[in-house]
């Protein structure tokens, strides 16, 4: 498995989108590229795991993340998206991506790695608990 950071316009993003859509089914190709172009200016980055079997176009998993500075955590790496392709789950892809994100957080001077996970994603929650993440807050939304 090869883990790489991808910039907007990287041709490998075409292989990332189908995996990301497993978590974010509303994303079209145009919307994904638009979100990344605009979000990149706000710190959004994508890191993806690709097969190391000669098929450089086979995306195994992807993480969207950014560094956030605020008064509660000071400096944290916030994970917007973390998904392993369904066919690759329980094969170490999520763990490899999370490990890489932890490394990046330390490199970038972050005090914390943080993410939100939908309440219905119980399989993901089991994974996060296994990886020693803890529930530290409730997240509240109000649709506008």
Could you give a quick summary of the protein structure above?
The protein has 144 residues and is α+β, with helices and mostly antiparallel strands. It has one domain: 3-Layer(aba) Sandwich (Aminopeptidase). The protein contains four helices and five strands; from the N terminus they run E-H-H-E-E-E-H-E-H.
Helix and strand arrangement:
Layout lengths: L1 E5 L6 H11 L5 H13 L3 E6 L8 E12 L3 E11 L8 H15 L4 E4 L6 H9 L14
Parallel strand pairs: 4-5
Antiparallel strand pairs: 1-2, 2-3, 3-4
Describe this structure in words.
The protein is an alpha+beta fold and 144 residues long. It has one domain: 3-Layer(aba) Sandwich (Aminopeptidase). The chain has a 5-stranded mixed beta sheet, with helices on both faces. β2 and β3 form a beta hairpin.
CATH level 1 class label: Alpha Beta
Q: Can you tell me the CATH architecture? A: 3-Layer(aba) Sandwich
Fill in the CATH topology: Aminopeptidase
Helix content: 25-40%
**CATH homolog superfamily:** Gcn5-related N-acetyltransferase (GNAT)
Beta-strand residue fraction? 25-35%
How far apart the termini lie comes to 41 Å
SS-derived structural category = alpha+beta
The strand count comes to 5
The total domain count is 1
Tell me, rounded to a whole number, the average pLDDT.
95
Q: Main sheet: which strands, in order across?
A: 1-2-3-4-5
- H/E topology pattern: EHHEEEHEH
Low-confidence stretches: none
> In DSSP terms, counting alpha (H) and pi (I) runs of 4 or more, how many helices?
4
Give the overall silhouette. globular
Report the radius of gyration as a whole number of Å. Answer: 15 Å
Query: Quick one: biggest sheet?
Result: 5 strands, mixed
């Amino acid at each position: 498995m090869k883990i790489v950071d991808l910039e907007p316009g990287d041709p490998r993003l075409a292989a990332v989108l189908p995996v990301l859509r497993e978590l974010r089914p509303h994303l079209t190709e145009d919307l994904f590229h638009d979100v990344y172009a605009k979000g990149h200016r706000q710190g959004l980055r994508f890191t993806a795991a690709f097969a190391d079997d000669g098929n450089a176009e086979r995306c195994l998993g992807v993480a969207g993340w950014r560094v956030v500075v605020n008064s509660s955590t000071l400096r944290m790496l916030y994970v917007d998206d973390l998904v392993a392709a369904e066919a690759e789950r329980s094969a170490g892809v999520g763990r490899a991506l999370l490990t890489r994100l932890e490394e990046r957080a330390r490199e970038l001077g972050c005090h914390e790695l943080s993410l939100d996970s939908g309440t219905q994603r119980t399989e993901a929650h089991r994974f996060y608990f296994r990886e020693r993440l803890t529930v530290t807050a409730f997240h509240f939304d109000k649709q506008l």
